[in-house]
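Q: How do we represent a protein-ligand complex in a form that can be generated token by token?
A: Start from the inputs.
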Amino acid sequence: MSLAEMLREAVDNGEFELYYQPKINLKDGMVVGAEALLRWHSRDGMVPPDRFIPIAEQTGLILPIGEWVLLQACEQAHIWRQEYPEFHMGVNLSPAQFDLDYLPRLVADILKEAQLPAEALELEITEGMIIEDIDNTVQILRSLRDLGVEISIDDFGTGYSSLSYLTRLPLDILKIDRSFMFEVPDSRDSTNVVLSILALARSLNLKVTAEGVETEDHVTLLHDHRCTYIQGYFCSRPLPVAEFEEFMRHRQ
Ligand code: G
Ligand code: G
Ligand code: NA
Ligand code: MN
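Then emit the structure tokens for the protein with guanosine-5'-monophosphate bound:
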């Protein structure tokens, strides 16, 4: 059986699980929420997302999988908000989902079904998804943001697009790609890229999430330059539900 064929049955067989990686507010050290990250326990074992998400994209299976992810993440956020009322959930969108003309409708329906207020949801898109047709992207983002959800640009700094789009798009958060953090503070260039993104975000009134935060040095630098949120192994790797709840109990 090919990976694509196995993937086709994976949703119905309940082989997917979401892991959750905490996001921390640097100002007060509190957990503000999590990013949902998809895991596939296939019958041949765990398949990493880097291997199956491209196949899911090519086959169109990312649409049903993506819907499952969105609903699952929103329902989990609803549960966690009973105990942590400010809890936010970040969900990755794939290019195919972003191209759906009914995406805003779908997101609205899922929020309703999960009984989750829109402001508790952050949709993470990548630079590649927004550069093809800026006018169309502005429309899509407007209708999503009209619902009340937040929009972040994931892997920021790795795309090839012009910075001018940043002033035109309705956005909330830039997520600094983890590849830059890995070279901080050893590489001056990467350190300067991180500081430039922080300055850029401030001038555009955007929040910043630094990804791949692994060391105390990272935290100090980001704190000194008023980064908004951090995410990375320094705080926690992505965790299954029970472990995430354990993490929250010890943290808050
Ligand atoms: O969790 P991990 O670092 O292994 O994820 C690898 C890649 O898979 C990342 O680029 C991440 O954005 C992507 N990914 C993880 N979960 C999802 C998901 O639910 N939907 C989409 N489209 N991509 C995801
Ligand atoms: O592309 P995206 O930003 O969605 O990818 C998120 C992925 O990055 C997660 O699946 C997670 O496994 C990985 N990740 C998160 N924090 C760290 C970190 O501190 N170091 C490394 N190496 N990977 C991380
Ligand atoms: Na992401
Ligand atoms: Mn990223």
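Residues 62-83 form the longest helix (22 residues). Strands lie at 16-25, 31-42, 45-47, 88-92, 121-126, 150-156, 173-176, 207-210, 229-230.
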